[in-house]
Design brief:
29% of the residues lie in helices and 27% in strands. It has eight helices and 15 strands. Strands 10-9-8-13-14-15 form a six-stranded mixed sheet, with helices on both faces. The protein is globular and about 45 Å long.
């Protein structure tokens, strides 16, 4: 099956289709409505052939539908009928969950997306479980997101922020009893030079994870569990000193 994957962000919407090597994009922003997004994607992908669509949505989603309006886009997303608008079957999940599925390498894995906020998801034996950990209390009446999101990085500075990320990874890994932690999002790049300080079993994802996750959304969980992600990302394994 040929799949069109759409990754919706606060500044750009990116799209990639099965068999296509390079994604295409257009600007999003605070005025982008779902109808505008659909029309722009259809124009962007007019020379691509696809039978189904995966959407990574920048906000909470349940049963394939947004449950909260996005913070950095226009309105009208909750209750919008994407399947009717596109005229094809659509699967929609939180964007962090889609990235988590793309970077999954087997077993029990926790994904933490370090960006403007904190995205999170679990993948267990190929089964995707979106989470909403960002606003749980962490320190001094502040949430996890307040410390490891972009606001925290700017408030704390790079070194203190990295220490908080390491602490949060350790806490959430222990709470979720996972074998691996995958770090993604734009701010994960600030940790690449400090891999030796990350907790054992922690690795950093790649830019292609979101699209790979979109393709995997149409696979059976048992098939996802059998097929490890292509190429190991930067990681700290149990053998690292």
């Amino acid at each position: 099956m040929k799949i069109l994957v759409i990754d919706i962000g606060g500044s750009h919407v990116k799209a990639l289709c099965t068999g296509v090597k390079r994604p295409r994009r257009f600007e999003s922003g605070t005025t982008l409505t779902p109808a505008m997004m659909v029309a722009s994607v259809q124009e962007l992908a007019k020379d691509w052939s696809y039978e189904a669509i995966s959407v990574g949505y920048p906000g909470p989603a349940r049963d394939g539908h947004p449950t909260v309006e996005p913070a950095h886009l226009g309105s009208g997303w909750v209750g919008f009928d994407f399947t009717t608008a596109f005229g094809r079957p659509v699967k929609l999940v939180n964007d962090a969950a889609m990235q988590a599925l793309g970077g999954y390498d087997g077993g029990r894995m926790l994904f933490l997306g370090l960006g403007t906020g904190l995205g999170s998801a679990l993948v267990i034996e190929g089964h995707l479980h979106p989470l909403e950990l960002a606003h749980l209390p962490y320190r001094k009446k502040r949430s996890f997101e307040d410390y490891v999101g972009e606001r925290g990085r700017l408030r704390l500075g790079e070194e203190k922020w990295r220490r908080r990320v390491i602490d949060v990874v350790e806490r959430l890994r222990a709470a979720t009893q996972v074998e691996q932690v995958l770090l993604g999002g734009g701010n994960a790049q600030h940790l690449r030079a400090h891999l030796d300080r990350l907790p054992v079993g922690t690795r950093i994802g790649g830019n292609a994870d979101a699209f790979r996750g979109g393709f995997r959304m149409w696979e059976q969980p048992e098939d996802v569990a059998k097929a490890p992600a292509r190429g190991r990302r930067s990681s700290r394994s149990a053998g690292t000193n």
